[in-house]
Design a protein that fits this description.
By secondary structure, the protein is an all-beta fold. It contains no helices and eleven strands.
């Protein structure tokens, strides 16, 4: 789980979905099915701009999705074990992923 920097959106990765709740209205904003599961590992992180989110879990891939549509924008590989955690940096320029393989990787949000 993660609360957005402005404390308005709660991000929850559970089962095989990522859920976004508005903390002011206490209502579900979006629920997107994922190509991975979050039973024992993984998570999701909402970009500070609330335009995209990153998710990683049961497989070795890190995926970036559009926040409004749930469409997959990027798929990245760099770990040799399931993804355990993901988080955007406060400025949104990078995000970090941690894996069961013992590595932490830093990714550019918008590679040039």
């Amino acid at each position: 789980m993660e609360i957005s920097p402005d404390e308005t959106i709660l991000t929850v990765a559970a089962g095989n979905k990522v859920y976004f709740f508005n903390l002011e209205t206490k209502k579900l904003v979006h629920a997107y099915p994922m190509p991975i599961h979050f039973r024992e590992e993984g998570g999701a992180s909402l970009h500070p701009s609330k335009t995209k989110f990153v998710a990683g879990g049961s497989d070795l891939w890190v995926r970036v999705f559009d926040f409004e549509t749930g469409k997959e924008l990027e798929t990245l590989k760099g770990h040799h074990g399931p993804i355990r955690c993901v988080r955007y940096a406060p400025d949104g320029k990078t995000y970090a992923t941690g894996s069961e393989d013992g590595t932490i990787r830093l990714w550019k949000t918008d590679p040039e």
